[in-house]
Amino acid sequence: MERRITTSEETKQDVFDAVLDRLAGYQIYFNGWPRESLGDYKRRYATARPDDLPTIPKCVSKEIIGRYGKNSLLDELSWATQDALPSTEVSEWIDNNEGIFAEAWSRGLWIVEETGKVTGYDER
């Protein structure tokens, strides 16, 4: 029996899992060879990066990498407002993009604007 979740509790993973569970009984072939199994797709999906990551400048990326775990998000936002961070460029960007900065800081994963590279705290 399929488990139903109310819309407010349902995640994208729940929807994906429901579709795969529904298709589990079907064998899908391409030119006579079976495609990846549904389990393979589920594993790929589980390890794939989110497609809605925030994009931030390299200088802000360095700020997050250098300060996360030492400072709080509130401290960083407060210091940016006071232009008290190591560079005015970083302070101004954070002050003008608080939501994007907070999302990158909180998620621990973002895209560096200049390189297009997915980056996170582990880049230390």
Give your account of this protein's structure.
The chain is mainly α. The chain folds into 2 domains: 12-47, no CATH class; 55-123, no CATH class. Helices cover 48% and strands 10% of the residues. The protein has 6 helices and 5 strands. It has helices at 12-23, 38-47, 58-67, 73-81, 88-96, 98-107, and strands at residues 29-30, 33-34, 55-56, 109-112, 118-120. The strands form 2 sheets. The chain has a 3-stranded mixed β-sheet. Helix 1 packs antiparallel against helix 2 and helix 4 (73-81) crosses helix 5 (88-96). The longest helix is centred in the N-terminal third of the chain and has 12 residues, at 12-23. It starts with 11 loop residues before the first helix and ends with a strand. 15% of the residues are buried. The mean pLDDT is 83.
Give the tags:
124 residues; mainly alpha; three-stranded mixed sheet; two-stranded antiparallel sheet; 6 helices; 5 strands; elongated
Helices, strands, pairings?
Layout: H1 12-23, E1 29-30, E2 33-34, H2 38-47, E3 55-56, H3 58-67, H4 73-81, H5 88-96, H6 98-107, E4 109-112, E5 118-120
Parallel strand pairs: 3-4
Antiparallel strand pairs: 1-2, 4-5
Helix pairs in contact: 1-2, 4-5
